[in-house]
Design goal:
Blueprint lengths: L1 H29 L4 H26 L10 H14 L1
Helix pairs in contact: 1-2, 2-3
Length: 85
């Protein structure tokens, strides 16, 4: 049951993170933002999307035995995951 909830949470955060990352400019256009207001909105939107990606990567940072990664292994995984995400 715990594993199922983790998978569901991961799926939801992936969906939200990807949706925000791909649509920041589109959202700004929908709101008819321009200039400094647009730049500020897009910057915040992308920051929020990056935070969602980091949370998703932290959830995925588990080894083959189901234990959370730690130390250098976790740092390496997080760096790669956030770069890809």
């Amino acid at each position: 049951m715990k594993k199922l909830l983790s998978v569901l949470a991961l799926g939801a955060s992936l969906f939200v993170g990807v949706a925000h990352a791909q649509t920041c400019d589109a959202q700004a256009a929908d709101k008819k933002l321009s200039g400094a207001a647009k730049n500020s909105f897009v910057k915040k939107c992308e920051k929020d999307a990056k935070a969602a990606a980091a949370a998703t990567c932290a959830t995925k940072a588990v080894d083959k035995n189901g234990k959370a990664l730690a130390g250098a292994a976790k740092n390496s995984f997080m760096k790669k995951c956030e770069k890809e995400g």
